[in-house]
Amino acid sequence: MYITKLFIALILLCCSGCSMVSLGYNHADWILRYWLNDYTSFNTAQREQIRQEIDDYLHWHRKNALPGYIAFLQNVDVAVNQQGGVTVGDVMRLRAESGRLYQLTMEPMLQPAAHILSTLNSEQITDLADTFAKRDSKQRKLMLKGSEQEMLDARAERDVELVEKLFGSLDDEQEKKITGMSLRIPFASRAFIEQREAKHAKLIALLKDKAGEDQIAALFRQWMVAPETFSTPQQQQTITAYESAMNEMTVQIIALLTARQKRHLTEKIASINDDFKKLNAAAEAASAK
Length: 289
What we know:
This protein has helices at residues 2-6, 18-26, 28-37, 44-81, 88-118, 122-143, 148-167, 172-184, 189-208, 213-225, 233-256, 259-288. By secondary structure, it is mainly α. Helix 6 (122-143) runs antiparallel to helix 9 and helix 7 packs across helix 8. The protein starts with a helix and ends with a helix.
């Protein structure tokens, strides 16, 4: 779970190759509209505005955000393959870089999303609240299932699966060591879920109070740059301990990798970046017309 946050763009590497990235981009407008329309019953005018905003955003993203993704992935590749191994400082630097990339990616979406949400009527707000409640409940059932040991075991399985998606198959000893590392990390899923639920509750309260789009956009920026403000001190203490431990675990995992496994990541990054460069070039050409 943490590694996908740390290496924000690496989630794309779970695709089987560059053709899958192109496929996702070519259908991103439809996917985003479907995903957004599932939150509440938008009217015709709202759906048309969503369509236009998504089209504009995707063009902006290809032209302006992809170069940052390319540079970030190259930096990840350099860090993983550097002599002497990855340090906690390297991990923290990449975390900071991924945070800046996340903000770059999200910022253009905040005001348009806030504007559309500010136009929701009472029935639509109720639908949105119900959607949040259902998805939060589903997340709780998925991530908080069973005893604490069972939840730790399930998290360890997910961590192993993610490492294999990024670096290729692990041998039995590597899998055993990564599982052991994960089992010793503080369990923070509950704190993250409660933080997410607090964000949803704050948004619904603003909408019910008929807040303007600037207030809603400000809330979204708070979500993005200061998520800790939606946690209690105890929850934030748990999250901080988890993230610190995961910095160490990331270093230890990379130290376990073979040259073949590092090469697996390098080849995936090269393939993804090649596709990103083509998408970016096409967007630049379209803008020049």
